[in-house]
Amino acid sequence: MKLKPIYILLFFLPVFSCKKDNYKELSTTLKGRILYNNEEIGLEYDRVPMEFYQMGFGKKGAITASFAQDGSYSVLFSDGNYKVIIPNGQGPFKWHQNAAGVNDTLTLTVNGSQTLDLQAIPYYLIRNAVYKVSGADLTATFRVDQIITGNTAKKIERVNLYVNKTQFVSGADNIANSELSGGAITDPTALTLKVNVPAIVPVQNYVFARIGVKIEGLEDMVFSPLQKIQL
Amino acid sequence: MMKKIYTVFTFTALLFMGACKKDSAFLDVPPKQIIPEEVAFSDPALALSVLGDLYNRQLDFSSLDGDGWRSFVDFSEAFPSENGSYNIVQRTGWGYGEWGIWDYGYIRDMNLFIKRATAATKLTEADKARFIAEARFLRANFYFEMAKRMGGIPLITEPMQYDYSGNVTNLQVPRSKESEVYDFVISEAEAIKNILPKDVNQKSRASKGAALAMEARAALYAGSIAKYGFKTPQVTLPGAEVGIPAGLAGGYYQKALAAAQEIINGQAGGYQLYKVLPDLSENFAAVFLDKSSVNQESIFIEDFKVNSAKVHGFTTNNQPFSISDEGLDAGRLNPSLNLVQAFEKLDNTYAPIATKDGQGNPVYYTNQLDAFAGRDARLAGTILLPNGAFKGKNVDVWAGYQLADGSILTSDDASHLAKLPGTDVAVQVVGKDGPVNGQEFRSQTGFYIRKYLDPQVGSGRRGRQSDVAFIRYRYAEVLLNAAEAAFELGMGGIADGYINQVRARAGLTRAIQGVTFDQIVHERRVELVFEGHTLYDMKRWRLAHIVWDGSKMSVSQLVSDIGLSTKKNTQPYGLWPYKYYNPGNPNHGKWLFKEVLPTAVTGANMFQMGNYYSTIGDDVLSANPKIVKQPNQ
Q: Where would I find the DUF3823 domain in this sequence (chain A) (predicted)?
């Protein structure tokens, strides 16, 4: 069979597409978690941003990323020197701050993939969460510990127990929730919240649950670790 | 021979004559596509056409042309019945950059116009003064529009010129304080109000009334940001680029009241509420349709004209499906039950649409419209209710038959028939206009929009389209602005007087005595809904993060606390009518209603602190290091 010229052309196609690109692909991964003394600070998915600045390239915008529910993050970029910040007013925690009380910047040299855990001080942490199932009722017992005390302490606005059929559990993503207002808390070391889990279609014999604390004057809630619960 | 010489001679002569044309005359041909500056500003008609372009580029949050309908379906006041637009009710909030504008190209064009018009020598003084005043009005109005979204922004009132020195620091202007932008808008309005014509019929060009209406609204916004800013301490900047000190609230409210009262007292012309038609609902709908001189309510409008390039497809997009002029093009904008039930009863009380009695049994209505009877006339003037009339036909909205055994007989389209129990003939079991979950271009909440919907023959056709005007400022809003300013200043009696005028026009004859903040919030919602106020009102009262708190709504949350300013409003509900089928039963053939969340609604609106002021783009921040970032940026 004689090859038509058009097919001969096709042979050249891969040659052209293999031409070297000007920029190296992004291959360096920086990942880690935000922690308080190696304890998880639970967050709402994609709500708390972090910004990476690399100086000297084009416009001075940031590479932005956000934390996952368990406070982990993962960013793909190229090697170099970066400055990292969590902008003011974001997150249910205090990040490094300078004398003026403004969030401080962390300098960072990235050379090859690495893991970097960040430390922050949350206003509250939810601990010892125990979930019990009885029929369609899910009961959670837990304690809320105040971490930041003194002048900069903030009050609890409300505490919620959220239940969802997927792993995303928050105020926006839930099928059932119950609420306890901050004023109604007498003993924060022994709290109980109960929700009635509605029927799930299609049927599913497990749910995911988390407890969230809304702190006065802060937008982002702090959550307990995600728990899968068999019904 | 002689003849040949003669011909050659003639050609040579012609050659020289052509060649002898002076270079300057040959090269300096005036361009045919561009009108030079000195020509444009020599003739009032040409100058007006330049100004017309500036008018056209004014920005409104909501508009009727293009995809304007989509700006109305947000904030849970309505549901978008179009497959491509469900993301509006599926997202869980707005991006920090949403609503942001930073259009200094337009500002520069307006500054250039003012400079060139000021320098013009061939225009009469009267023309010149008016053109300049109009451009200053547009500039102030646009700065106001930017301030609502961005807070304090650089105030540039001169066309800036780069001097090619390589140094641009003189062009880098820092952000003004938020209060300074409002001060600018107010002072510009004061400066130009007496130059602009005092003419009620001047609606699409700036008038004294428009300048005062802008001043009243701007001062009111500034006053409420100052007064309610304490609720959101996170939303401030140390240099006051965002946020206004609480001490300035009183002064702004006084300015708002004074400017509004100047209109109310007739110093800007004889503006008044539109009271022409005996049927109050028809009358309210006609406020937005009547463009004749009878309408002395609209103050400043974006006008449209059929058979010109400036028409809009609002009616095409949103007309009821079965009454559509355009086959399948219809029904995108479906007002929510949240909004419908906000219209109060004629005895000034709030109540949800009754669907169940005290024992939890359904309430049966003989006619669908009975469920909405005895309410604020603006309800039927704003929203096309089930069985409501448009273009002489009635909307066919019902979700199916409710059978005696509790089951429902319905189908996915009105043309798919089904047999009722005990019968052999297949009948229509769902309304031609919906509601069916997920069926686009038909109502999925049970309601259609009526505000702006053009009853003219052919207005729903894609070819002709509609020329209903978008009202930017109208007298009823001026009254509400005056009422709110007076209320905040502690002048309750004056506030009552103004708000009751608006309410009386709506058929609420029991006057309010001692108006409350909740009532002011509520009145603005029902009077001004779908006019581009919702977002900014909630922002300036710092209510947005409370009303749109990101949590889902249950039916019991939906039907309680109606009329409270802090009522949660995160998901647009619908109200579906069913026909009761139970031969022999006294309620057979009557209607019952159910609250329904359209299945496309999966998100819940969450307004974050970072939404109060839109982010400033990285390009702007890179180009001008003097610009301060927004508080949540």
A: 29-119, 124-228
Kindly report the pTM of this predicted structure.
0.88
* Inter-chain touch B551–A219, beta carbons under 8 Å: no
Give the per-residue pLDDT at A15.
58
**Cβ neighbours of A178 in B, within 8 Å:** none
Q: Are B420 and B427 in contact (CB under 8 A)?
A: yes
The angle at the Cα of B279, spanning B277 to B281, to the nearest 5 degrees, equals 105
Interface contact flag, B618 A171, Cβ < 8 Å:
no
pLDDT digits (tens, 9 = 90+) for B184-214: 999 999 999 999 999 999 999 999 999 999 9
Q: Could you give the ipTM of this predicted complex?
A: 0.78
Cα–Cα distances (Å) from B348 to B211, B282, B529, in that order, read 34, 21, 19
Residue of B nearest to A59 (CA): B622
Question: Closest approach of chain B CAs to the CA of A229, in angstroms?
Answer: 22
- Reading phi first (left if > 0) and then psi (alpha if -120 to 50, else beta), residue B456 is in beta
Asked if B555 reaches chain A (Cβ–Cβ under 8 Å), the answer is no
User: Measured between CB atoms, does B92 come within 8 Å of chain A?
Assistant: yes
Task: Name the minimum distance, in Å, from the CA of B107 to any CA of chain A.
Answer: 24
> Is the pLDDT reported for residue A1 higher than 80?
no
- Yes or no, beta carbons of A89 and B608 under 8 Å apart: no
B618 vs A: CB within 8 A: yes
pLDDT band at A90 (very low <50, low <70, confident <90, very high): confident
Q: Are B388 and B394 in contact (CB under 8 A)?
A: yes
Residue type, A225: P
Which pLDDT does position A26 carry in this prediction? 78
Closest CB to B618 among A60, A173, A177: A60
- Closest by CA to A129, choosing from A227, A230, A214, is A227
Smallest CA–CA distance, residue B27 to chain A, in Å, is 43
How wide is the angle at C-alpha B228 spanned by C-alphas B224 and B232, nearest 5°?
135
Residue A187, classified by CB atoms within 10 Å of its CB into exposed (0-12), middle (13-18) or buried (19+), is exposed
Q: Are strands A137-146 and A191-196 parallel, antiparallel or unpaired?
A: antiparallel
Tokens describing residue B204: 């699409």
Tokens 């004859």 belong to B509
Q: How many residues appear in chain B?
A: 633
CB contact under 8 A, B609 and A217: no
Residues of chain B falling short of pLDDT 50: none
Q: Do B632 and A89 touch (CB under 8 A)?
A: yes
CA A174 to chain B, closest CA, distance in angstroms equals 8
The SS3 call for residue B222 is helix
> What is the identity of the amino acid at B496?
D
Q: Each residue of A153-212: pLDDT tens digit?
A: 899 999 999 999 999 998 888 888 899 998 888 888 999 999 999 888 888 999 999 999
> Chain A within 8 Å of B619 (Cβ-Cβ)?
yes
- Chain B residue with minimal CA distance to A50? B633
Q: Which domains does chain A have, with CATH numbers?
A: 28-122 (2.60.40.1120), 124-230 (2.60.40.2060)
Instruction: For residues A163 and B543, give the distance between their C-alpha atoms in angstroms, rounded to a whole number.
Output: 28
Q: Residue B362 forms beta bridges with which residues?
A: B356
Buried b (16+ CB within 10 A) or exposed e, B513-538: eebeeebbbbbbbbbbbbbbbbbbbb
- Tell me the percentage of chain A whose pLDDT exceeds 70: 90
What pLDDT does B16 receive? 63
Residue in A with minimal Cα distance to B95:
A47
- Taking alpha carbons only, the member of B212, B211, B243, B206 closest to residue B228 is B243
Q: Most B CBs within 10 Å: which of A45, A55, A60, as the mutation test of the B interface?
A: A60
In order of A166, B301, B302, the CA distances from B199 in angstroms are 62, 14, 17
